[in-house]
Amino acid sequence: MRIMPIVAGLGLLLLPAPFASAQSGGQKAARVKVEFVDPQNYTDVGQYGTDSDRNLAALARHLESEGQRCVAEGNTLSLRVLDVDLAGRNEWWKAGYDLRVMREIDWPRIKLHYVLRDAGGAIASEGDASVDDMNYLSRSAYVRADAIRQLPYERAMLRDWFERQFCRKAY
Asked: What is the annotated signal peptide range for this record (predicted)?
């Protein structure tokens, strides 16, 4: 198993992301680390090259953002992304270019392993997750507002998972 480190904007693939951003009151933000394990073997992360790199960078940014929103101050969250299968499928069209077509049978799926550590470094929660959304097409109206961003269905799916897994447990 190979972990591929990547730098956002340069080609991507792993993003350790300590959130040391400035917050009001001098508080520290949650620390989030995202690793893509063997991304070249993922089920579907877009067309190889620029498209797949851009999609992985977008996923990393979103995972980091959700972690910052949901993980309690002082805790750290490590996410190892093991597989990605984006919503829809690329299909070749008459015009000579590929187009991602959304159908009921091609729902988004992401497999990952997470480790949540408390401020003292002890493991508070750990597990494997298979995050998927078989009803992703029913979100069309919901994701329309997010459609200007990359991967709106995957973003909505991950937002819901973070809400269930980490946000609600914070109080």
From this structure: 1-22
- The label of the residue with tokens 């933000």 reads 29
* Domain of 163, in residue numbers: 14-170
Element (H, E) at 160: helix 152-162
> In total, how many domains does the chain have?
1
In a domain, 134, yes or no: yes
Per-residue pLDDT of the chain (171 residues; tens, 9 = 90+): 444 444 333 333 444 443 333 333 444 445 899 999 999 999 999 877 778 999 999 999 999 999 999 998 899 999 999 999 998 888 776 666 677 777 888 899 999 999 999 999 999 999 999 999 998 888 776 666 665 678 888 999 999 999 999 987 644
d(CA 113, CA 126): 8
Question: Strand ranges (DSSP E) for the chain?
Answer: 14-17, 31-36, 76-85, 89-92, 98-101, 109-117, 123-132
Residue 7 lies in a domain: no
- Please count the CA atoms within 13 angstroms of the CA of 25 that sit on its side-chain side: 4
- pTM of the complete model: 0.76
Helices and strands counted in the chain (H then E): 3, 7
